Amino acid sequence: MKIALAQINSFVGDIENNSNLIIKHAKEASIRGAELFITPELSICGYPPEDLVLREDFLDACSKALKKIAKAMPSIKMIVGHPLKKGSKIYNAASLLFNGK
User: Fold this and answer.
1) Rg (CA), the chain
2) How far apart are CA 45 and CA 11, in angstroms?
3) Is the terminal CB of the chain with fewer CB neighbours within 10 Å at N or C?
4) What is this structure's pTM?
């Protein structure tokens, strides 16, 4: 299995541009034959997000960006770092994306 590790520089709070950057590099990795593309920790929102993760609108934007990335790159497996809220807890998470999900 060919694996591509993304060495991208995400910017804190710039979810739109960070997700576009992830998609751009995932496309390049896919063209070069990668079967799995892995991004850095919290790559969708940038690191460290600090108190931004306490804002519901910020977490919602990260969730929407994750779905956008999954739909844009259905043919390559991806592990993408992002914040995740479950109940009252917020996690530093990574999700496996494939087939648009």
Assistant:
1) 13
2) 7
3) N
4) 0.93
